[in-house]
Specification:
With about 450 residues, the protein is α+β, with helices and mostly antiparallel strands. It has 11 helices and 12 strands. The strands form 3 sheets. A 5-stranded antiparallel β-sheet has the order 2-1-5-4-3. A 5-stranded mixed β-sheet has the order 7-9-10-12-11. A hairpin with a 2-residue loop joins strand 3 and strand 4. Helix 7 runs antiparallel to helix 8, helix 9 crosses helix 10 and helix 10 packs antiparallel against helix 11. The longest helix has about 40 residues. The radius of gyration is 45 Å and the shape is elongated.
């Protein structure tokens, strides 16, 4: 028997029970009244009339009582059935809150209103999500547990050059997405889709719909972004190189022209040899500076990947601090610690930080301190000085940017590059509690790099 048939059977049984109880409720009173009428001093005509009246009244009262009980239950059943079917517009009318049935109707009306509001909000949110998915410039695909496409946005249609109606229900591998399914989440690949080629970033996420596992596949073209970043990097590099090269070539060109004029003079000046030595010395000095600049850039560009090994932090810091001979660097010990990193690159990093701190401290006659801490997590190393502090500039870690007259602008940039190659961070800021600057290096316990 179907559930609906079972419900009808239970409904009929309930109605019969109510009808039986209705008749039983009036049976005793009607029986007593009939006995009194039948035994009373009435004529037969009156006796039969009263008996018929009592029987009719008993039946009508029982049926009325049945309707009084059954009708609200039927209405409540219809309201709940409408809610189950998703029709939240039906309401019980003329409801009174003074009885139990009225309270039940009020609760059903409140439930219908709440569900209707939730449906409206869900519909609006779904509409907004659908509009956003259609307008975003990344391809979005939803795959079911069998790898078949269940959702494709407009960018996905353009990527595969196929309408969504022809894609839905097809296996993703057959639709042209097989290369993306082999890429690690968050990875990139270079591929030519029917809608265009380039370099693509692939992201995947899992979700459940109607209790079944699904996968969300997002494909974005990063070629344009990479080209723009590459173009900006080239612009910065050319700007810096042009500045430094021009700073060296301009005096070389000027001095060369002056020396040419002195050599061509007739008669030649008596101090020509001294002028030649002085001019050639300036040319040599500027050439050497330009050579050092290019060598520093080449060293930064060719930084090899870290070769991790166990590093005793205390020994590393004390050994490096002893290399600074212009002033005594105070080592604030915080116990023993060991990390897994490239010792040679860490030496270069800390040497640069201590050298910058010493340069600043010598300007004011202050000191330099270095210390570290590690509480079951990354190593935090700090270097602070009593110098004038760092300028408010966002270019401190930009290659070749320097605030020192004889600086190359390589030290901080190279130090940050070493820190990031180990999976760490390097920051530089003014000390909040006193005059001077503070460099903060954070390295993971196993600084194997980020690949």
């Amino acid at each position: 028997m179907t559930p609906r048939g079972a419900r009808r059977r239970r409904g009929r049984s309930f109605e019969r029970r109510v009808l039986h109880l209705s008749f039983l409720t009036g049976a005793l009173g009607t029986g007593v009244a009939l006995a009194l009428v039948w035994t009373g001093d009435y004529t037969p005509k009156v006796r039969w009339t009263l008996a018929l009246f009592l029987l009719v009244g008993w039946v009508v009262s029982a049926l009325a009582l049945r309707e009084t009980v059954i009708r609200p239950v039927q209405l409540l059943s219809n309201l709940l059935s409408a809610l189950r079917e998703g029709d939240f517009s039906l309401r019980a009318q003329q409801v009174e809150s003074g009885d139990a049935m009225g309270l039940a109707f009020l609760e059903v009306n409140a439930l219908a209103g709440m569900l209707q509001d939730q449906r409206i909000r869900a519909f609006e949110a779904t509409t907004l999500l659908r509009r956003v998915m259609e307008e975003i410039d990344v391809a979005v695909f939803a795959l079911d547990g069998e790898g078949r496409l269940r959702l494709v946005n407009r960018a996905g249609e353009r990527l595969l050059d196929t309408p969504a109606a022809r894609l839905l229900g097809r296996p993703a591998s057959e639709a042209g997405l097989a290369p993306t399914l082999a890429v690690e989440p968050g990875g990139t690949l270079r591929h030519a889709f029917p809608g265009g080629g380039g370099r693509w970033q692939v992201r995947r996420a899992h979700f459940r719909l109607e209790g079944r596992p699904h996968e969300l596949l997002v494909i974005g073209n990063v070629s344009r972004v990479l080209r723009e970043e590459e173009h900006q990097a080239w612009e910065r590099l050319i700007r810096v190189l042009s500045h430094e090269i021009n700073n060296s070539l301009a005096p070389i060109h000027s001095i060369a022209g002056t020396l040419r004029g002195l050599v061509d003079a007739d008669p030649r000046p008596a101090d020509l040899d001294d002028d030649l030595r002085s001019g050639l010395g300036v040319i040599g000095t500027r050439s050497e500076a330009l050579g050092r600049f290019m060598a520093a850039y080449a060293r930064m560009a060719r930084l090899p990947p870290p070769e991790p090994a166990p590093v005793d932090v205390a020994a590393w810091v004390r050994r490096t601090a002893a290399l600074e001979t212009r002033l005594a660097v105070e080592v604030v010990s915080s116990g023993d610690a060991t990390i897994h990193a490239d010792p040679d690159q860490l030496d270069q990093l800390l040497i640069n930080l201590l050298r910058n701190a010493a340069d600043a401290a010598l300007e004011t006659g202050g000191g330099v301190r270095v210390g570290w801490s590690r509480d079951n997590g990354p190593l935090v190393l700090w270097v602070e000085d009593d110098g004038p502090g760092v300028p408010e500039s966002a270019n401190l870690f930009v290659p070749f940017f320097t605030t020192k007259p004889q600086g190359t602008g390589i030290g901080l940039a190279l130090s940050r590059q070493i820190a990031e190659a180990h999976g760490g961070t390097l920051s530089l800021e003014n000390r909040p509690d006193a005059r001077g600057a503070r460099a903060l290096l954070v390295l993971p316990a196993t600084a194997d790099g980020d690949g």
